[in-house]
């Protein structure tokens, strides 16, 4: 991405919402699915082509999209691990805990850490929390369900 910093939004008929993301430098800072875009949102960003192809059923894991995960290290590690869940596959919270370095699935605190990280995910879609079947998603529930159905989950 070599777009300048800003907010970008485009309406998705499939989702019934706008897809909006904030970008700074070459990193996505945030993704949201508002019912109307921010007043200063621009409609054109190179990522929209890929996002709309994905919404039409083209497989894309967005692994190469640079996402700024500015949060505590343990939560960032959880979300980095979630980014590794392949398109069309899903994990349980327990499995994500087991895959995340430094966490113990037998510890309730670590399971709660994973749930919190997923719930506070700043970039749903690019950090695919919808692929964690029994965890929260930062996307609205109806968006999470549409993304899951799109991937056959």
Query: What's the CATH H-level homologous superfamily of the domain at 73-141?
Result: Winged helix-like DNA-binding domain superfamily/Winged helix DNA-binding domain
Strand content: 5-15%
Which word captures the global form?
A: globular
What is the correct CATH architecture of the domain at 73-141? Orthogonal Bundle
CATH topology of the domain at 73-141: Arc Repressor Mutant, subunit A
Strand line-up of the largest beta sheet: 1-2-3
Q: Average pLDDT across residues?
A: 94
Low-confidence stretches: none
The helix-and-strand class reads: alpha+beta
Alpha-carbon distance between the two ends: 29 Å
**Residue share in helices?**
25-40%
Multimerization state: single chain
Radius of gyration: 15 Å
What do you see in this structure?
There is one protein chain. The protein is α+β, with helices and mostly antiparallel strands and 153 residues long. It has a domain at 73-141: Winged helix-like DNA-binding domain superfamily/Winged helix DNA-binding domain (Arc Repressor Mutant, subunit A, Orthogonal Bundle), CATH 1.10.10. It has helices at 47-55, 73-82, 93-99, 108-119, 141-150; strands spanning 6-12, 17-24, 27-32. The protein has a 3-stranded antiparallel beta sheet, with no helix packed on it. Strand 1 (6-12) and strand 2 (17-24) form a beta hairpin. The longest helix has 12 residues, at 108-119. The model has no long low-confidence stretch (mean pLDDT 94).
């Amino acid at each position: 991405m070599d777009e300048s910093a800003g907010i970008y939004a485009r309406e998705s008929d499939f989702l019934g919402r706008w897809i909006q993301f904030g970008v700074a430098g070459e990193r996505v800072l945030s993704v949201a699915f508002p019912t109307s875009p921010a007043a200063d949102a621009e409609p054109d960003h190179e990522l929209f082509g890929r996002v709309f192809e994905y919404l039409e059923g083209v497989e894309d894991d967005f692994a190469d999209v640079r996402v700024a995960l500015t949060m505590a290290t343990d939560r960032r590690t959880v979300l980095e691990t979630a980014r590794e869940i392949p398109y069309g596959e899903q994990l349980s919270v327990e499995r994500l805990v087991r895959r995340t370095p430094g966490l113990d699935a037998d510890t309730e605190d670590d399971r709660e850490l994973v749930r919190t990280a997923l719930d506070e995910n700043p970039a749903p879609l690019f950090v695919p929390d919808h692929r964690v079947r029994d965890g929260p998603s930062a996307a609205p529930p109806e968006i999470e369900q549409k993304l899951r159905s799109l991937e056959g989950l």
